[in-house]
Fold:
Amino acid sequence: MKKISLYTIVFIIGALSTITSCEKFLDMSPDENLTIEDVFANRNYTRDFLTHIYSWNPSEVNMADDGGSYRNPFVAGSDEMECAYGKAYAHQINSGGWNPTDISRTKIWPESYMALRKVNMFLEHVDDCPTTEIEIRHWKGEAYFLRAWFHFLVFRTYGPIPVLDHSLNPEDDMLSIRRSDVETVVKFICDDCDRAAECLADFNRWPSTDTGRALRMSALGLKSRALLYLASPLYNGDTLLAELKDPVDGSNLIPQTADASKWAKAAEAAKECIRVAKATGFGLYRKNEDPVLNYQYIFLDNWNEEILWAKNIGTYSHHLLCSDPVSFGCYAIYDPTQEIVDAYEMEDGSTPIIGYTNNGLTPIINPSSGYVEAGFTEESYEGRWEKGVSNMYTHREPRFYASINFAGSLWKTTRASNWTKPHYNEFWFTGMDGKNNAGSDYCKTGYLLKKMHNPSFIKGTYIPLQTSIYIRLGEIYLNAAEAINESEGPANAYPYVNEIRNRAGLPNLPEGLNKDEMRDRIKHERRIELAFETHRFFDTRRWLDGPETQGTPIHSMNIYAGTALNDGTLANFRGIM
Amino acid sequence: MIGILTLLLCPGQAYAQQFQTFKVSGSVTASDTHEPIIAAGVQMKASNIGTVTDINGDYSLLVTDPEGILTISAVGYKTVFIKIAKRARIDVVLDPDVESLEDAVVVGYGTQKKATITGSLTTVDAKVLQKTVSPSLSNALGGAMPGVITRQSSGEPGYDGATILIRGLGTWVDASPLILIDGVERSIDNVNPEEIESFSILKDASATAVYGMRGANGVILITTKKGTVGKPKVTFRTEQTHLRGLRFPDYIKGWEFANLMNEACQVGGVTIPWADEQIEAFRDGSDPYNYPSVDWTNEVLKKDAFQSINNLSVSGGNDAVRYYVSVGFTSQSGLFKEDPTYDYRTNSLAQRYNFRSNIDVNLTKNLSLYLGLAEIVRDQTYPGTSASTIFSRLRTTSPISYPIRNPNGTFGGGATSYEQISPYVLVTNSGFIKQFRTTAQGTFGAKWDLVFITPGLQLEGNFSYDHYYYSEVTRSKRPEINKYIGPDPVTGEDRYNRIADETAMGYSIGHSANRTYYYDIRLNYNRSFNNHNIGALAMFNRRDYMKLSAGSSIANLPYRRQGWAGRFTYNYKQKYLFDFNFGYNGSENFARGHRYGFFPAWSAGWVPSLEEWWKIGWINHLKLRGSFGYVGNDAVGGERFFYLSNVNKTANGYKFGDSQITLNGMSEDLLGSPNATWEVSRKTDVGVDMELFKRILRISADYFYEYRDRILLQRATIPDIMGAAYGNLPYANIGIMSNRGVDGQIELTDRKKSGLFYSIRANFTYARNKIIEDDTAHALYDYQNSRGTYANSWLGYVALGLFQSQEEIDNSPKQELGSYTVGDIKYKDLNGDDVINAYDRTWIGHPRNPQLMYGIGLTLAYKGFDISLNFTGAALTDILLGANSMWPFALDYPGYNVLREYYDNRFIPGAADNSNAKYPVVHNGTSSNNYQTSTLYQRDGSYLKLKAAEIGYNFSKRVYSKIGAESLRIFLNGNNLFWLDNIKIMDPESNNLGSATYPTQRGITFGVQLGF
Structure:
């Protein structure tokens, strides 16, 4: 039995060795598992935590797709632009299909609150961070601004919203958190803007390594916009939403009586913003003598003096692909409407089209403007139009040429790796950019968006570094004009509107406008100056102008006809989209 | 190797000499043929002493114990045990192997006699599985046995395995069963059916309790063949299959597409794009560059493919060593066409080599060792573009988008992103991908009869190490692609828009690897005291799985489990049966204090047919059994350490500065839930087994009820305003689900005196689950509440048909799902508010994995010929067809391809009679009203398939002995010969919103099996 004993020993040792250290065997855990406290005990980690909050900033230049932090259905959801990508979320807005199931395709609600949770956590812990007092103060300023900003993004979409000044725990009673009325929401936003402005009072301009961080001017600009919204008819005595009430105490979430003093507060905020801006080196962008180039480069000259709050989007290119024509191998889906094209003034400031008949198909042309739709021009004007284009596109105001690509316009001299000839847009049916030569992505209106497109972009070859502007000083001038016209009357509004018009190469507004006429002029000026900058959708709503401007069909050129620029079948036709 | 074996053998041989010997001889014959059985194993029970019968069926054996028991076994015959009782001559007649109550059945961590089993388990003969000639074993399971529900959603070589569910879905987190091959968790689709010795599925708590928190979803046990004592037995089997792709997506022709565009513009009231003569040009193909009409499906897919499965195995042994070694080669080619100008392969090809060596060594009379080694090598080739991209590109590229090649010979393409590169280029000109997988599996075991302590006591240990390595080489390329835009109106020169430049073939490689070790140690005790039969098991096991190429430090940490398990069985005269099973185990997935769970199960059985008062002669065997117990499931999603709150150290950053440098971001990660633990399932099973009419008819049936509690869910009632980032809401054990059903089988098997053998088998599984609690917010309307519905059901509208007139629209509730017109889908107003919106959705349809699955098998054999048919069916399942290509221009007018199913059944504006139209009118844009999930696109996914049919001939000894063989069989087999279903346009097993998956195939196989 000796051998058996030997095996016995081996077996038993083997068996025992397996069962030893049982509890430790399952003690697996990450070697370095940071906690939130660890993050705020380290200066660099704290900075990284703040950096991440910025990453929730939306990419507003992406007007085609929904979801993620790419979320801007509002440009193509208004009368400015059609997005020719069939799955664009904007179509839900336009066809009345925006309902509780697909609203989640815009991530505005959840993602803004995701950002807000992090902001609140940051503010709750940042005092623990071992760094200088100045840095903590600046960080707090940025955080207060971001808290105001993300609340504003939700507010402009949903109106009365829950206001969160602290981070929530999963165990908290979530049902006790209710929507606040719009006055409370805007007050919260403005209070945070004030705190931010105070913390960042010495942070006037970005060092070149820190452009993109919130500044005092960002806060002052946001405050101006928030107060303007609050003073507007939608939130100031709008009885259409009388039934929008707190479910518990029954109070109205939108004030039911108009309060004129809100305009005065909005005016004050805008004036204060402009005053501080001028005092700290900000101003309207005026680097180019040519008003066309000057206006175009407001959006291409990164971090110029007009920018109050913007996002570095690096070499992001989706919006560039969306606004280049199909012959460039691009998508051609940012298609401005005939409505916005018609709205640009003539170069002398006159209005070309004063209305429509025949269900919007036939324009009523202002004879004194010199605008004609028939025929093709024999002259050319460098930097604006080429010989042979439709007369519709001649002698328009400079911002038109900086914003819109139309049939026959010159667009880039290099369109692909194997191409060096100048490209003239061929939006007619058989043209190389035309419907006949495209798939389901094609220029649907006969126009492509030129504004905010950096022409140095070449698909597959070069993408420039870009920024996407959220707030610029030009908007604040128009905020001031609008609020002043309401609170003080038209006389004091003139200088603000005229400054924007003159910078764009247009003459002053005619003298002697009454308050209503001035209001219409300011609305028009906002429509043109701030076109495609995610204002129109919200402006028409806060003015309660939606039914007239957004509830009607939009129009285009006839992209189903034409074999040449001057055969007259593309132009001189308006069709309902 | 041989050296090691010799060393191991020496002590054993020395040991055997210590006993006196006694000679026994005799012959072994078959009861059905009355012919001698050659190479039947004759062995002393519980010892290493044995021999095999010679060519005349005779044996002679020196035994050490004249009172011992002889075990006589032969493949295809029932094993018999005979007491020697000091007899010198023992002749034995063996009965053909029809399943018997005396058979040992593989159960969790051991075997049990079928007669004494009280839990619910099913075994199936590997030969039945082999009738479904498929490289993926999972495809053979559906309909082959009760309790299993399967669905094969793709036919792509290398990726055609089926989803397996045991008794349906018991949880909506991870319902996949535990699959153990030779006791170790391994992939079922790596197993070669030829290597399978036994196949069991364990269904109720009693059968799976020993697996504790791994047992709740059921367990599949596969053991591979082992050697038996005898001279070397060589088996060669080859199956050559011609595959034919079934139900390719059928898209409309170019002129039909153009016609549909016109129709859409007519509906939209805009200019008609194509004149009649242009449509004619699409139809007659007279101008293929300006008016292309490409049948992309036909251009990239071919109907025929080939498959080959070959196996060679040798087994045998003597009283010291038994061996089973086998090698297999499986090859399956794909359905993609190739460009003949390339000398490399782009069509799919999946090849697999299986090597296996199972060696048993008797070291001493009581101690034996086992070494099982297997290597599975899989080499697969695919086009440079994945099949899912190719099939979705077929859905998005219209027949008139562009020709395959332009006038200048370059490839056609489109400006829009989804059609820039044509399906033809993707399949034939985008390079290729090669995948290499190697799995090495080794199991070492030792078994020691502790008779010196007490008879019936046995100690057993197993250690296994598996290693998996995967590498993927991508050689992608792209040719020059242009969009032809016609001649220049002035110069007449052809013009092109450049879509993409040519790129040279690239090279990229990816790897992944993992390894697992597992060991267990078991103490078994089995003994009879008069009529009291006692069995007991106690064991410990431990597993450590590690991703060797994990992408993060957390994923790189080993996944560990360990546990104890035990079993106690008792029966009195095999008449009154009791079992107690338990598992006690822990997982590193949970926090200390929440790691270990105890899972007990009790079962009992009664065999009234063994009672002395039993008088019903035609019921030969009747067993009633029931079980109740707890089992767990720790497969709770991909998150690890969700008990810990942690910080994401590389969260999204942000670009700052004029040069736009991205700064790193840090953020809160998953919110920890320190109390999280496994799911627990409370299972009840009641069953009956019967054998009737001299055991010709066997019936067994089970009713089961399962209550799955503490399903680990991410909290869903926490609103978005809390602001946890995507996927970071805390987990909690809050889900509850019930699952109930019945499964059963009936089998009629008889061998007539004339030699006619016939067998009819039918089985079915019905399982219906119900969500009791899923932590979703309570819906405004009861009919939208997910509680009370099936898991994996879907929320959709009830379609009332299509609007036939403007008047009907005016008199119907307003639909707020996007604009609509005559010919669009009309929905039912469920809440009666006269408006159709999201509140009018309800739970529609049965889940995609069927609730009822059944199989019917027939076998007839006579004088060497045999024929068998295996039908598989499923019911209580629905499929949703609504998706791209069923929604014309789903991207936007005129984007995407259109299926003929839509085109032939659409609402045609202005047609005299649209009452038979199944699908809504076409629009010159997207139509969100028509793109909703609704009953309009829902189809009954029931089917009945003739999954396998085989006709074979076993040559007589006269023939095979001429070539020196011992058996020879040839057979012709057909898979998927016949389908009966409602879907017609694709495999009824396809995924929802399907038609973009790789088609399944029909196989016609010629096979030969030769034994030496």
